[in-house]
Amino acid sequence: MSSLSQLIGAKAKAKEPPPAKRERRKEARPRELLDAALELFVEKGFAATRSEEVAARAGVSKGTLFLYFPTKEELFKAVVRENISGRFAEWNDEFQTFEGSTADMVRYCMKVWWERLGATPASGITKLIISEARNFPELAAFYQNEVIKPGQELIRRILQRGVDRGEFHVIDIEYARFSITAPMLFLVMMKHSLGACLPQDYPLDPQRYLSSQIETLLHGLCVRPDPAQKGQGSQ
Amino acid sequence: MSSLSQLIGAKAKAKEPPPAKRERRKEARPRELLDAALELFVEKGFAATRSEEVAARAGVSKGTLFLYFPTKEELFKAVVRENISGRFAEWNDEFQTFEGSTADMVRYCMKVWWERLGATPASGITKLIISEARNFPELAAFYQNEVIKPGQELIRRILQRGVDRGEFHVIDIEYARFSITAPMLFLVMMKHSLGACLPQDYPLDPQRYLSSQIETLLHGLCVRPDPAQKGQGSQ
Amino acid sequence: MSSLSQLIGAKAKAKEPPPAKRERRKEARPRELLDAALELFVEKGFAATRSEEVAARAGVSKGTLFLYFPTKEELFKAVVRENISGRFAEWNDEFQTFEGSTADMVRYCMKVWWERLGATPASGITKLIISEARNFPELAAFYQNEVIKPGQELIRRILQRGVDRGEFHVIDIEYARFSITAPMLFLVMMKHSLGACLPQDYPLDPQRYLSSQIETLLHGLCVRPDPAQKGQGSQ
Amino acid sequence: MSSLSQLIGAKAKAKEPPPAKRERRKEARPRELLDAALELFVEKGFAATRSEEVAARAGVSKGTLFLYFPTKEELFKAVVRENISGRFAEWNDEFQTFEGSTADMVRYCMKVWWERLGATPASGITKLIISEARNFPELAAFYQNEVIKPGQELIRRILQRGVDRGEFHVIDIEYARFSITAPMLFLVMMKHSLGACLPQDYPLDPQRYLSSQIETLLHGLCVRPDPAQKGQGSQ
DNA sequence: AATGAATGAGGGTTCATTCAT
DNA sequence: GATGAATGAACCCTCATTCAT
């Protein structure tokens, strides 16, 4: 866990130490443009962001932007794609070998998510997708496949582990997994939307928020859970 | 009616039961325009929605729109304000006199929210605010004061009641209240954003979703809560 | 001269005591509309004046205006036509029988012009024509025929009288007549243009201005006119 | 060249001696746009002139206009400011050292004005100001300060010189100075307004007109000035 | 005749995109 | 490759004009 902590926050800068010449396509295309575009799209939305502004923030001229991205839409798509790291495979491995209680696994999952994604500019992608999904259905699908599905799969496996080991009494995992997703979404929305423009009436400490949510999630609000009520709902 | 995909888009159809020829007068127009604008703003965002489109969806010409709202921005503000009826006072009364367990109160709270807000087009306002908050800080502040604050206050009181009556072992209400907000936000985002444009891989039944979240919230995931672990978290 | 003075200023109101049923065309059409339009056209110009504003100032609704004038252009033309009184015939008679020095005739001419036209709202027509002549050439021609020509003819005759009676040593009447026109134009421009929107640095008393111009015109600036220089110019 | 009708419209022709392909760069554009705008504003007025027309006459597209002037109103202001070069200082010097009779000074003053301003397109500014003063009070004030005041000051000094040297018997310079202004105004109005759209009934030669006015101004109409009548006027 | 809600062509302005340098 | 002047389609908004009442 401590070695992981050291990796934290190193993402936004040195992302690909050796470009690896994977496809060599546009690995050289100014990362600055994508970073500038991400910031602005998150801040103002796709339609309200002017191309020239993106170029200016990246320190190049308007024409240069179109040298790398044929249209503003392509730029947007590239921003989304580039910031969606397919890192879940790697995480899967980490969690595959996780030892300890599943409760700790949930805690660790949140922590890792916050440190590697939530706290970085890449978290703005979520707000972007939320805002523009219906204007860019293909991107929404892409995000669904690249981020949501693997993420949910990971969460599903964690919950299943809890159930299998008798630690959790989850009934329907397909719904319960959102108990982990929702706080993440909430936090990101606070960071990039309302929370970014309002005088903070109440300071919201992300890590404390997440911890608090997890503990409530794990142990519930009720002092003495009454199994008889489980699943009845309020209908 | 039970799956989310069915909830979406089942509204643009039956619009004018009997158009009544041209009986609809000045007093009906604003509402029609606001409804059309809400739909489009939620769907495409403020900047990407054209004024003429709003007018067309309301069945009037471009010029008519500006007879009622001097600018597109004022239309936007009116959309937000109009769809935020100060219903919290009335709700407060309902909850003031609530009898029964606080767990039931939480269940009832969610149910009422879904029926009166979540399931209506007004829920799109949340997505709208999330998407445009940084471009319209005044509106964000307005929403904060008119919706978030009263809502949070209501939730806070419910939680406090649970604690006071020894039903809940809440530690920090200022964070715990988001355990109720987050699922609401999540559901609304699904309804108006990603969920509205993706082929529903899995049907998400809102009421079942909410019930599930509430029960998990109330009773926790862990089979046997271990008080010793409470508060340790992953810090 | 005194009976004439009594007639002064009675124009703008009771214009046609008995409508005479001359052509009966639109004698009944609200004079208020034309008056309102004159004011506004003079104030803001033809293009910048909105039809609705004219109607409002006349105390009727937008639709009513178009009941009387099919287009804004026709309204403009009507304003010009209605305010160009063909009163020169009547003036001609007055001047035909004038007895006294031609210098006094010039003085009287100016005085009458100021009192019957210059000081009334009708003087705004001149500014209107000046501003819009090139957009309404037919109106310019109309004005030329109805106002300028008869006016110049009147002035021409006065000057000719002075020359014939040995009172003036005019050489070229075709140019000299503008010596009378120019001060009129100047005064009207001051009244309706610059003078109407600037803090008057210097108060310009119209009657004093006209007197002063006439005396200079009659007697010249030079203390001792040197006939030898006359007509040499500065070439 | 001698008749007014020939002076008008003899300008829109020889526009681009050698268009030089596309050598004309950013520095030439503003001047071209301002010239085009001056022509059109004078011809049709501010409100009736379309931005695209200005651009077209300058040989550029609509968008280019807004590269140089943020709004049509700013374009208008720039037109007025640009065409008012503070040439009065230089003229002041010329007149400071003038030797000869003050009558000759007046003749020279008119001649210089015509050659350097009256005959140039810049004279259209006067019609423009007259027409738009009440819609642009700040511009009217600007024109008042930059053009009228210095000009009047110059004229005032000339008249004062004549009085001081015993050449003129001016009584009230504050009124007499308009005897010089009025013919200028008249000529410019003829050139840019009525005279520009009417079939010239009579050719008006500007220089001859000015000479004629000056001589009348200097020596008066009356053959034998009767000092006893001076100042009586028609009051 | 009078009203004023409704219309839609027109014009000011923006901005993604192009292209000559 | 980089630039930024130029373009013109598109959009917000105005307002002369129409027409049902």
Short description:
With 235 residues, chain A is mainly α.
Structure overview:
Four copies of one chain form a homotetramer. Chain A is mostly helical and 235 residues long. The first copy, chain A, folds into two domains: 20-75, Homeodomain-like (Arc Repressor Mutant, subunit A), CATH 1.10.10.60; 84-224, Tetracycline Repressor, domain 2, CATH 1.10.357.10. Chain A is built from 13 helices and no strands. Chain A has helices at residues 2-7, 31-44, 51-58, 62-68, 72-82, 88-96, 102-118, 124-132, 137-164, 173-176, 178-192, 194-197, 206-219. The longest helix of chain A has 28 residues, at 137-164. Chain A is elongated. Chains in contact: A-B, C-D. At the C-D interface, helix 7, helix 8, helix 9, helix 10 and helix 11 of C face helix 7, helix 8, helix 9, helix 10 and helix 11 of D.
SSE topology sketch:
Four copies of one chain form a homotetramer.
Chain A: H1 2-7, H2 31-44, H3 51-58, H4 62-68, H5 72-82, H6 88-96, H7 102-118, H8 124-132, H9 137-164, H10 173-176, H11 178-192, H12 194-197, H13 206-219
Helix pairs in contact in A: 2-3, 2-5, 2-8, 3-4, 6-9, 7-9, 7-11, 7-13, 11-13
The structure holds a DNA duplex (21 and 21 nucleotides).
Q: Largest interface, with Cβ-Cβ < 8 Å? A: A-B, 78 and 77 residues
Alpha carbon gap, first and last residue of chain A? 44 Å
What best-fitting shape of chain A do the alpha-carbon axes yield? Answer: elongated
Q: What's the assembly state of these chains?
A: homotetramer
Average pLDDT, all residues of chain A: 83
Helix content of chain A: 55-70%
Major β-sheet annotation of chain A: none
CATH level 1 name of the largest domain in chain A: Mainly Alpha
